[in-house]
């Protein structure tokens, strides 16, 4: 069940990504489950480990069972982001699933007035079609 809202530590451990954000007057909670190894299907793909530590910045995902390796971008392209949101434009509350594909967006820092570039999952409100960006802190 890729779209089940993660609640337990075990479920959170199966995620590659999750974030909770306030977006203007709205908010969004997004999560992405890891998928099993496409080769042996025995285990979830994960970042490689070295000496018991996960190599967070690795550009690859590895199957802990059979060592099948996939490039990060290729693997993440097969994943689905589930998003529970309240639209900042129209107040609609909804649930949507979109491909886990991060885009570079410009973000305005309201304190400094400066814009910077950030990775975001972009989706449209199902009611008013407003574009909503979920950036990671
Ligand atoms: Zn495998
Ligand atoms: Zn809306």
What secondary-structure arrangement, pairings included, does this model have?
Layout: H1 9-12, E1 15-23, E2 26-33, E3 49-50, E4 53-54, E5 60-62, E6 69-71, H2 72-76, E7 80-86, E8 93-99, E9 102-108, E10 115-124, E11 131-135
Antiparallel strand pairs: 1-2, 2-7, 3-4, 5-6, 7-8, 9-10, 10-11
This protein binds zinc ion (ZN) (2 copies).
Q: What's the short version?
A:
This protein has 137 residues and is mainly beta.
Tell me what the structure shows.
This protein has 137 residues and is mainly beta. It has 2 domains: 93 residues, no CATH class; 44 residues, no CATH class. The strands form 4 sheets. It has a 4-stranded antiparallel sheet, with no helix packed on it. A 3-stranded antiparallel sheet has the order 9-10-11, with no helix packed on it. β7 and β8 form a beta hairpin. The longest helix is centred in the middle third of the chain and has 5 residues. It starts with 8 loop residues before the first helix and ends with a strand. The model has no long low-confidence stretch (mean pLDDT 92). Bound molecules: zinc ion (ZN) (2 copies). One zinc ion binds next to loops.
């Amino acid at each position: 069940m890729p779209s089940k809202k993660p609640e337990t530590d075990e479920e959170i451990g199966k995620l590659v990504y999750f974030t909770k954000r306030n977006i203007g007057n709205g908010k969004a909670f997004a999560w992405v489950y890891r998928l099993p190894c496409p080769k042996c299907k025995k285990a979830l793909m994960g970042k490689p480990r070295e000496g018991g530590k996960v190599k967070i910045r690795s550009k690859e995902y590895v199957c802990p069972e059979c060592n099948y390796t996939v490039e990060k971008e290729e693997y993440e392209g097969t994943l689905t982001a589930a998003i529970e949101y309240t639209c900042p434009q129209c107040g609609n509350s909804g649930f949507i699933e979109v491909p886990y594909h991060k885009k570079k967006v410009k973000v305005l820092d309201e304190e400094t007035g400066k814009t910077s570039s950030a990775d975001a999952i972009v989706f449209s409100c199902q009611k008013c079609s407003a574009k909503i960006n979920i950036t990671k802190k």
